[in-house]
Amino acid sequence: MSELRESGLIRLVPRLGRRGAWLLPPWAVLCGAVASTLLHPSPGDAVRLAMTILLVEGGWGTLWSALGATDWATPLQQWRTWAGRRPTPLLPYARPGSPAERIASWLSRFRSWWEEALLPSAGRALGAALAGLVVSLLVALALGPEIFLLTLGVLALMELALLTRRRQEGGLEEWDGVLRTGGPWLAGHLAFGPLTLPSAALAGAFSLAVAGAGERNLRRSRPLWVGGQLLATPLLILLQRPLAASLLGLLLIPQWLLLTRPAPSNPTRRYALLWLTTAMLLAAWAM
Fold first, then answer.
1. pLDDT single digits (tens) 164-184
2. Could you say which of 6, 36, 78, 280 is the most buried, measured as most Cβ atoms within 10 Å of its Cβ?
3. What's the predicted TM-score (pTM) here?
């Protein structure tokens, strides 16, 4: 997955490593904090916002980049038929045929597989995944129980995404919106106050829009990208924010015009992403 080496900080989903797409997770954190209406220009809130961005980028992002861009299936399949052995210290009373002897034999086989199959192909990714997991759990604990529970949910979604890819032999684009936008938006909101239904609905709407940003099929990309934002418009009307709803509708026009070609061959999509991030902040501010 060469996309992982493209510009950007930490890519939650390697498919969207395009220029400018790295901004989405921290921007979604800021939008969630603004939607909470409890973010103030104070040193304490600035530190809390920075910690939430660290959670999303340094924790979730590092873990997901390592998991999503690494071929874990090959070394795991090799383990099933692995016959290599590495010398290991004998366990006490490891007589032939005894449970201790069988454990020692398994450890010898596991050590050989670990050193010859897993570490050469996925050693760096494994280290990055462990680092991301530790950062995620520690920072989430520091931010509070709500953020910690949300982190556990995000970790479960990552596992579900990997299982889905393994069974269907597909990509991870369908999870992009939730992990790049929805989760960070919720984290930003929960970092400053209790979650509200309108804010959660906006997180879901913009998750659909970002999912469209990673879709290669133009027939599916534009409806998801624009349709997700259209779902936010009636919500703003229900909240008695007609001006914000009108501005959000106007912001959709340049995005629709820029989405004229599929993602891999459309360099103008990064400009559409700028309009999308503007729409996100507008909707959050209108809360």
1. 765 555 455 667 778 888 999
2. 280
3. 0.76
